């Protein structure tokens, strides 16, 4: 498994990130996010699920499989990463964060991870607000930070307010952010870089609280 590293490798906290369903670990969005988190003093490690890595080879383009079938791959990435200098936080962009959320409690109970971050959690498919992906989130034991745009078509502020979520989940709302957390500057007054800096600082502060 190939990893991409950003930030100081001896950082107090390491963050392992999986990518979204349709874009690789080195997409523009993932690159920008990793650099922002690294600038906040975190060691960021990215990896790719097998179907996405296969798109870089002769295997060609494969559609993303059902998210839950990727759970073993996420656990394998944690195992291959091995021990980190300090606490390990897992998570990812969209589907990557969803998969991490499904394996988090197992890893947390084993003392392997300190927390979970989800960058644009896909609470439901776009346009299908009744097809919720929240059942496991109601009883989540792992300390969790979800960073979500208020106009994310996978779960807006108004929609998420009505969900039953574990008390261990904190949500950072980013004004006018879409599923990539990007706002419309003319509407919100914020740029994408502004929101990523807010995310990075919030993740750093949150990590210091959950794993002092």
Q: How do the strands line up in the largest sheet?
A: 1-3-2-4-5-6-7
Q: Write down the domain tally.
A: 1
CATH architecture: 3-Layer(aba) Sandwich
Text of the CATH class? Alpha Beta
Unreliable residue stretches? none
CATH homologous superfamily, by name?
Alpha/Beta hydrolase fold, catalytic domain
Q: How much is the average pLDDT?
A: 96
Distance between the termini: 30 Å
DSSP summary: helix tally: 7
Oligomer kind = single chain
- Which overall shape is indicated by the principal axes computed on the Cα atoms? globular
* Largest sheet composition: 7 strands, mixed
- The beta-strand count equals 7
Q: Helicity range of the residues?
A: 25-40%
* Strand-pairing-aware structural class: alpha/beta
Structure overview:
By secondary structure, the protein is of the alpha/beta class. The protein has a single domain (3-210), classed as Rossmann fold. Helices cover 33% and strands 17% of the residues. The chain has helices spanning 28-39, 50-54, 71-81, 95-109, 157-160, 185-188, 192-210, and strands spanning 3-6, 14-18, 43-47, 88-93, 115-119, 144-149, 169-174. It has a seven-stranded mixed β-sheet, sandwiched between helices. Helix 1 (28-39) packs across helix 7 and helix 3 crosses helix 4. The model has no long low-confidence stretch (mean pLDDT 96).
